[in-house]
Specification:
The protein is built from six helices and 15 strands. A hairpin with a 2-residue loop joins strand 13 and strand 14. The longest helix has 10 residues. It binds uracil.
């Protein structure tokens, strides 16, 4: 943890409003540090050593935040973009001071589970190619996905750049009949995260993904009650299981 930080940043992190709102609180004399009324919202404080109160209420500081986003299509998995809306634009204002970033990427047209955090160590561990964190997707695919695709994905398929994928588990929910205009519906679990991996794996077997949604990442499952475009903080149980998985 950083030893010191600005008082207004600390209060913004703990949900006391924007920097200008916090300035007003300080001006009103309701913020105190170790029992003394704070005079400057930019003063340096150490959340581990200083006792900070607002209107007498003790401020409990936390450094990290962990958010689950149900990413919609049309939004990019980046912290900034000149053209498109980013996943950060979908988050509640109260998280704007946490400097969160998406852990890995979903394509602009992919929906589903995206973890956002400012815990760089966890992100690094979850994304490490050595960890093989499983990621499960639901996909709709043009063409009849069949037993030979299940076997090919289990063996590993050769992508357009010559890379041979690790073993992946394909579960066919419905084998579509292309002659009837039907799509196949599948679940696929991969243990790595190459660029456009799911789409390119289907390309490798002559099929095209028309819809893609991530359902889980390691132990974290997309909350079925979380509406598209909405986010929520991980529960304590989810957070602990992710941290344990990322070790
Ligand atoms: N694979 C893809 O092709 N796209 C994604 O967004 C995620 C995995």
């Amino acid at each position: 943890m950083k030893a010191t930080l600005r008082l207004d940043k600390l209060l913004a992190h703990t949900g006391f409003g924007t920097r200008s709102e916090i300035k007003q609180l300080v001006k009103r004399g309701v913020v105190s540090v170790d029992g003394k009324t704070a005079k400057d919202s930019g003063m340096q404080v150490n959340p581990e050593r200083h006792r900070i109160t607002v209107d007498g209420e003790l401020v409990v500081y936390r450094e990290f935040v962990y958010l689950m986003l149900h990413k919609p299509q049309g939004v990019v998995s980046a912290t900034e973009d000149n053209r498109d809306q980013t996943v950060l634009d979908l988050l509640d204002e109260q998280y704007s001071h946490f400097d969160v970033f998406p852990v890995g990427r979903l394509d602009k047209d992919t929906e589903g589970l995206l973890l956002l955090t400012n815990d760089g160590k966890l992100a690094h561990n979850l994304l490490s190619p050595r960890k093989h964190v499983p990621k499960m997707y639901y996909a709709e695919v043009s063409g009849a996905v069949n037993e030979s695709d299940i076997e090919a994905f289990a063996r590993g398929v050769t992508l357009d750049d010559g890379y041979v994928t690790m073993t992946a588990e394909l579960n066919v929910l419905h084998c579509g009949r292309p002659e009837a205009g039907e799509l196949s519906r599948v679940e696929l679990t991969i243990h790595e995260g190459k660029f456009h991996q799911v789409k390119r794996m289907f390309q490798a077997v002559g099929k095209q993904v028309t819809y893609l949604k991530r359902l889980s990442m390691g132990p974290l499952k997309l909350d079925p009650a979380l509406p598209l475009g909405q986010s929520r903080e991980l529960t304590e149980e989810e957070r602990q299981s992710m941290l344990a998985h990322g070790e």
